[in-house]
Specification:
- This protein has 408 residues and is α+β, with helices and mostly antiparallel strands.
- It has 2 domains: 42-144, 3-layer Sandwich (Rieske Iron-sulfur Protein), CATH 2.102.10.10; 164-386, Naphthalene 1,2-dioxygenase Alpha Subunit, Chain A, domain 1 (Alpha-Beta Complex), CATH 3.90.380.
- The protein has 9 helices and 17 strands.
- A 7-stranded antiparallel sheet has the order 11-17-16-15-14-13-12. The chain has a 6-stranded antiparallel sheet with strand order 1-10-9-4-3-2, with no helix packed on it.
- The longest helix is centred in the last third of the chain and has 20 residues, at 295-314.
- It is globular, with a radius of gyration of 22 Å.
Length: 408
């Protein structure tokens, strides 16, 4: 298995990952980890869940914001509070592409300038709120809240195929970096997802060996756009994933286990998973997929997706289920029929590590080669940043490596 990282051609000497265990989890302004994260676009919401004329509060990387869609359909991201008496702007009124505070009616235009203060005489030209970059892509709303110029958008390529794009989000009560480490750990699927059998093959003596063989055949290659992980299935077919800084992966994953999705389109879907820090202690994982179905099949898929969302809304929240399991009030076996049991499995594994895992107490082994690779990569980037030098300029446009969907 390849573990070699491309040597940085910059001046800073890369320090060991242990030096950055705290920074891996940091998201707040002024922290090393938070500074690194603010160099990138991050998904903050699902596009079709924010209607024109509506606003919602957003927490991203330990900061609070106001996201609203103007009556025109345009998106806007601004400060969380009105500068007058600090009322939360998202509870106010969207008027055209402006937002008006609920408390005393101060109104702010799309550029953040105050355009009206009903009870205040004189000019209000000196009053404004900060605005931030916000764009839509692949069914998701992305934000850029860094201090420098906006980086290239979109942050990664669109899907090469045509079809129906479905986007969703899942909430996890642990630090985002734990979920990203999980993506680099192929062998966890053998055991974490054994009960729900999402990642086949079905349970039996060959399941562990199947994933062990994938692990043994894994090769990592750093490119100018990310890290490509290539594995081989027992029949020799390649299976590649692309890791994208700072916390995303593109891969083929099986359909989730709602019965209403079975049999519609391919059993594996081309997918982006993006882990977005809410703060140091919780995060959201955004999932966007392309399903190459058309005509009546596309209509059926969309109708079934609406049913799936209703089914999920009626089910117990996965985070609450996770708390029940971790407290011993229930077990994984009690929740196999949950519509997103895969999220509950991941919750049981990742959240039980601790809200922020204590990496100094780990006992790493062969199955952790991917996790070790990621930590070395992050340590290299954070070494640069800590030394006041530029980090790697990751490219955002590239062609997906060839891969085959597994056949179980």
């Amino acid at each position: 298995m390849s573990e070699t990282l491309t040597a940085p051609d910059r001046k800073a000497r890369s320090r060991p990952p242990q030096d950055f265990y705290q920074a891996f989890a940091e998201t707040a302004p002024g922290t090393l980890g938070g500074k690194y994260l603010r160099q990138f676009w991050h998904p903050i919401a699902v596009s079709n869940e924010l209607a024109p004329g509506r606003a919602k509060p957003i927490r991203l990387m330990s900061e609070n914001f106001t996201l609203y869609r103007g009556e025109t359909g345009n998106l806007h991201l601004t400060e969380f509070h009105c500068p007058h008496r600090r009322t939360q702007l998202s509870v106010g009124y969207v008027e055209g592409d402006a937002i008006r505070c609920l408390y005393h009616g101060w109104k702010f235009g799309a550029d953040g300038a105050c355009v009206e203060r009903p009870a205040e005489p004189g000019s209000h030209a000196h009053v404004h709120i900060k605005t931030y970059g916000v764009k839509e892509f692949l069914g998701l709303i992305f934000a850029y809240t860094g201090d420098g110029p906006e980086p290239a958008f979109p942050p990664f390529p669109a899907f090469e195929e045509d079809g129906v794009v479905i986007a969703e989000e899942q909430f996890f009560e642990c630090n985002h970096f734990q979920s990203w480490e999980n993506d680099w750990d192929i062998y966890h699927a053998a055991w974490t997802h054994k009960m729900g059998e999402l990642h086949g093959p079905t349970s039996g003596p060959g399941r562990s060996e199947f994933f062990a063989s994938l692990m043994r055949s894994t090769v990592y290659e750093e490119t100018d756009f990310g890290v490509v992980r290539t594995m081989s299935f027992p029949d020799g077919a390649p299976f590649s994933s692309v890791f994208i800084m700072p916390a995303a992966i593109r891969l083929m994953i099986p359909t989730f286990n709602e019965l209403s999705r079975r049999g519609i389109g391919p059993s594996f879907r081309d997918t982006y998973l993006v882990h977005c820090p809410v703060d140091d202690f919780v995060h959201k994982t955004f999932i966007t997929q392309i399903i190459p179905v058309f005509g009546e099949d596309a209509k059926t898929l969309i109708a079934h997706d609406i049913e799936v969302k209703k089914l999920r809304a009626q089910a117990t929240d996965p985070a609450e289920v996770g708390r029940s399991i971790l407290s011993g009030r229930s077990s994984l076996a009690d929740h196999v029929s949950h519509p997103v049991f895969v999220i509950i499995e991941d919750t049981a594994a990742q959240v039980s590590q601790g809200v922020i895992v204590d990496r100094s107490k780990e006992m790493l082994g062969t199955s952790d080669n991917g996790v070790i690779y990621l930590r070395r990569l992050m340590a290299r980037e954070l070494s640069q940043l800590d030394a006041g030098l530029p980090t790697k300029d990751w490219k955002t446009q590239w062609k997906r490596p060839a891969f085959a969907a597994p056949k179980f």
